[in-house]
């Protein structure tokens, strides 16, 4: 690939980094420990109500009402949960080249 675009390509450094294998169970536990109770509840309700499907089966307003909170507050909890989920994926154990072992 690079050789096709450039006349000369030279590998200067190669580094291997050992990372512990992350099981779904310990990734899930670590994520749950970082979410607030309301963030976890908002994310769980949204997921199981097919909120992330298109078209949506339920509105944010419906989910907020089921939690007894304002729509804007529901979305604030949901965005916070999504942010932490993505941080775990990209900055935590998974995004930096670690492997997931689904057997454990």
Protein described:
By secondary structure, the chain is mainly alpha-helical. The chain has helices spanning 2-5, 24-34, 37-48, 60-67, 71-90. The protein is elongated and about 65 Å long.
Nearest-angstrom radius of gyration? 20 Å
Apparent shape: elongated
Low-confidence runs of at least 5 consecutive residues: 95-104
Q: How many DSSP H or I helices? A: 5
**Beta-strand segment tally:** 0
Distance between the ends: 37 Å
| Largest sheet geometry | none
Give average pLDDT, whole number: 85
Summarize the structure.
This protein is mainly α.
SSE map:
Layout: H1 2-5, H2 24-34, H3 37-48, H4 60-67, H5 71-90
Keywords:
5 helices, 53% helix, elongated
């Amino acid at each position: 690939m690079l050789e096709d675009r450039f006349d000369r390509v030279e590998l200067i450094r190669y580094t291997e980094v050992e990372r512990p294998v992350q099981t779904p169970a310990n990734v899930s536990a670590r994520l749950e420990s970082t979410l607030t109770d309301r963030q976890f509840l908002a994310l769980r309700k949204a997921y199981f109500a097919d909120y992330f499907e298109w078209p949506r089966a339920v509105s944010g307003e419906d989910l907020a009402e089921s939690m007894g909170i304002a729509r804007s507050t529901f979305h604030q909890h949901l965005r916070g949960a999504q942010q932490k989920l993505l941080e775990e994926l990209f900055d935590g154990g998974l995004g930096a080249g670690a492997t997931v072992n689904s057997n454990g």
